[in-house]
Here is the input.
Amino acid sequence: MSFSRSRRLAFAALSLVPLLALTACGGSADAQAGGAAQLDVPAAEADGPLDLADVCPATVVLQQDWQPEAEHGAMYSLVGSDHTVDTEAKSVTGSLVAQGVDTGVDVEVRPGGPNVNFQPVPALMYLDESILLGAVTSDAQIAALADNPVVTVTSQLTTSPQMVMWDPESHEGATTIEEAAADGDPLVASGDVFPQMLAAQGIIDESQIDLSYEGTPQRFVSDPSILQQAFATAEPYSYENELPQWNKPVDYQLLADVGYSVYPEALAVRADKVEENADCLAKLVPIMQQAQIDYLEDPQATNELIVDLVDQYQTGWTYSLGVAEFSVQAQKDLDIVTDDPASGVFGQIDPERMAEIVDTFGTILADAGQIDSADIDPETLYTNEFIDDSISMGK
Here is the structure.
């Protein structure tokens, strides 16, 4: 199983029951206005780079792999203020507004996880042809290659925010996963891809792998000797500030520091749909590149939308502005979002990195029986054809 958010269900089970009880009392309609009427947003210049009207679908459908959160800010930042919320289907739709102009089409953003019965995004894209771009992490892309092949067209997060965390009091002095795991304590996770990667490097012993993680904090709180999967853009804040049973810091190391080199939640298109959508992608991909940069520079309105959507969807997932603001800062401070180190272009896929990903995770997935063969051509997994190489965070 790919290590995704699909199992990171709320620690709300411990800390936020009153909030859930209140939100559950509210009624929901199939579609609710999400904001005021569209503000005075100028139309994109006809046939210009931001005019999508004649090249993209009337509604550009974007599929995320988890509940609304700040790591998905680029997608949600494109949703205009005229949006409506479908509380039954769990989606938000509005004018696609990029760089301050109306692109002439709508955008619909759909969350994943429990909202789609935890189906992988590639499978969803083959079930519903209306989905143009889906958020697919590289190991999940490899796992789906035989039945649901997709092609990555740009990254959004450059480095995975996934981490292993531990209690600093129980693992005094530990600064790395290897040091924290040195006494043989269990590493609790929901999937075996990254634990097997760590075991292959001798960072942990295979006997320490515990795949019982269900996304709640109960075990960590009751047994702080364990190591646990988490996200550096969320749990350090949540455990310290929103979990009364803990309310203290945790220590952690990013998995990217020890070889988890995947492109997290990269934007992908069905392999058989790339050519027919080429004209749209030539304009849309640069918009997605710039949207991530713009979101991190001015995240407030998008964060408020994300929190509002979580409240309206009422799935049991909870998300605060505090977590969203922490996530934005962590994305910057931890280099979760950076230019591609090889090219200096934001969102570009590095051929050498993709080859390394295939070599590492193709082997792990094949050994686990999740794919038939690790003989995969890395070049089939991505294209930089639509990347605007003038876009970077440093410009």
Q: What stands out?
A: The domain at 31-159+262-381 is CATH 3.40.190.10 (D-Maltodextrin-Binding Protein; domain 2). The chain has two domains: 31-159+262-381, 162-258. The longest strand covers residues 101-110. Residues 1-37 have pLDDT under 50 and may be disordered.
